[in-house]
Design a protein that fits this description.
The chain is mainly alpha-helical and about 150 residues long. Helices cover about 55% and strands about 5% of the residues. It is built from six helices and two strands. It has a two-stranded antiparallel ribbon with strand order 1-2. Strand 1 and strand 2 form a beta hairpin.
C-alpha cells in the first residue's frame, strides 16, 4: 500500500454493536469517569449560554456574621434583588467614602495565616432588630398560611 504524503492512511476499525466491543467499553468507561461530559451533550442553546456566563462570573465565598446575613436578606427582599447585589452595593458605597489612607482598627491575630484581625464596627442594633422582626413576621405568616 502506497502512502500519499500529506494524507493520513485510512484505517478501518471494525466497531461491533455489542457490549464486547472495545469502542463500547471505552465509551462506557468515559461516561462513568466523566459524567459531566455526557450531560453537556444534550444542552439547549440557552443552557450552553448560561453555562458559559457562569464560568465567566467571579464567584467567591466569604464568612459573614449571622446578623449581617440577616440584614442582607432583609434588604434584598425589600428591594427585590439578590443578597450578593445588596452586599456589592453596600461595599461599593463604603469604598467610595474611604480616603487615601485606610487605617482600620486592628488587633494581633491568633491565626498563623494572618498577622492581624480587623475590629469591624458594630452593626446598628436597630437594623438587627428590624431584620429579626421581619424574619419572625415572615415565618409566622408562612405558618398561618399553611406553607
Amino acid at each position: 500500500m502506497a502512502v500519499k504524503k500529506g494524507i493520513p492512511p485510512k484505517v478501518d476499525f471494525p466497531i461491533e454493536d455489542g457490549e464486547t466491543s472495545a469502542y463500547s467499553a471505552i465509551r462506557a468507561a468515559n461516561t462513568e469517569l466523566y459524567p459531566e461530559m455526557e450531560k453537556g451533550k444534550n444542552l439547549t442553546k440557552a443552557q450552553i449560554k448560561k453555562r458559559k456566563l457562569d464560568k465567566q462570573r467571579n464567584k467567591k465565598t466569604y464568612d459573614l456574621s449571622d446578623e449581617l446575613i440577616l440584614i442582607l436578606e432583609m434588604y434584598a427582599e425589600e428591594i427585590g434583588t439578590t443578597k450578593s447585589q445588596v452586599l456589592e452595593y453596600l461595599a461599593d458605597s463604603a469604598l467610595a467614602n474611604i480616603t487615601e489612607e485606610f487605617e482600620p482598627n486592628k488587633r494581633q491575630s491568633k491565626s498563623m495565616r494572618f498577622d492581624y484581625m480587623l475590629n469591624a464596627p458594630e452593626i446598628p442594633k436597630r437594623l438587627i432588630e428590624r431584620a429579626k422582626k421581619k424574619k419572625k413576621y415572615d415565618i409566622t405568616q408562612a405558618h398561618s398560611a399553611g406553607v
